[in-house]
Design goal:
Helix content: 10-25%
Distance between the termini: 64 Å
Strand content: 5-15%
Structural class: alpha/beta
Order of helices and strands: HEEEHHHHEHEEEEE
Strand order of the largest sheet: 5-6-7-4-8
Shape: elongated
Length: 291
């Protein structure tokens, strides 16, 4: 019997949902926590560091005048540190016909450029997150094959001063503040010892954020399973669950991070340190691809 069946229809329109689903919603906690500093005015940025002298015991004899040997240099422990800037760029191309003619589901006509801009800004921030949390060493631009590179947190949090713009020896991170064990062999005592070292340096009990990989984050739940009552789990509605670890010296919030160029995990003091922005979220359009 002749007839028209759905499977034989010609010219059926595609049933496209008017949306594009993004399956990737990874956060950038380090970049989000960093206060935004002033715009750089040089490729090398400098800042000063200082420390208090150790406390002294004893007293002053009544009536005794100050002598030359009593004087001290109040700036003797002051030192200058340096860092380099780095330029991040994301280049993309949307043709005039792709922008002005095509009507793409979830984008619409004349929407490809705007979508590309928004997507590229997120991708740039992720590249910055990965760089800031890496062990990348800084380098100078040689005008040929090497670009300016900023120093990653893993390079700053090191017991070595570094080769390019080295850290002053008195301000290098103490070895006791660095855990060199693998994730599988790290114990709660190791974390307590590192937090104790941080406390010995700063003398302050503050909340810290540990930016770590998922394997180390699970390790904290292992500590909880061993009966460490100081650690508790709190479910949140965002992408990642969070956990807090309390040691004898500090509180710590665990934040899993996805963008890791090394296996180094970092403890961060919220609000300390900053990122300087130059030409933030700026883009340029060309009518054609430059030669």
């Amino acid at each position: 019997m002749a007839g028209l069946l759905e499977i034989n229809q010609v010219g059926k329109r595609e049933d496209f949902a008017d949306v594009i689903a993004m399956i990737d919603y990874k956060n950038t906690p380090f970049s989000s926590m960093c206060p935004k500093g002033s715009e750089p005015v040089n490729t090398i940025y400098d800042w000063q560091m200082d420390a208090y002298d150790d406390p002294l015991l004893g007293g002053v004899i009544d009536g005794k005048d100050v002598v030359d040997t009593d004087y001290v240099n109040p700036a003797a422990r002051r030192a200058k540190a340096h860092g380099r800037i780095q330029k991040f760029r994301k280049a993309f191309m949307v043709s005039d016909m792709a922008q002005n003619v095509s009507d793409v589901a979830g984008v619409g006509r004349r929407g490809e450029m705007q979508r590309a801009i928004k997507k590229s800004i997120v991708e740039l921030k992720r590249s910055m997150e990965a760089t800031f949390c890496s062990d990348q060493v800084s380098q100078a631009d040689d005008g040929s094959t090497k670009a300016y590179l900023t120093r990653g947190a893993g390079s700053w949090v090191s017991n070595a001063a570094g080769t390019d713009l080295p850290t002053p020896a008195a301000f290098v991170t103490p070895a006791a503040s660095i855990i060199t064990k693998t994730t599988a062999t790290t114990l709660e005592d190791d974390l307590n010892a590192a937090m104790e070292s941080v406390y010995q340096q700063t003398g302050q009990q503050k909340d810290f954020d540990l930016l770590c990989g998922t394997a180390l984050k699970k390790r904290f739940f292992f500590f909880c399973g061993l009966g460490a009552k100081r650690c508790f789990y709190r479910a949140v509605t965002q992408v990642q669950p969070r956990c807090r670890q309390q040691s004898d010296h500090q509180y710590g919030r665990l934040l899993a991070r996805r963008f890791r160029l090394s296996e180094i995990d970092h403890v961060v003091v919220p609000g300390q340190g900053c990122a300087g922005w130059c030409l933030s979220s700026e883009y340029h359009e060309w009518s054609r691809v430059p030669d």
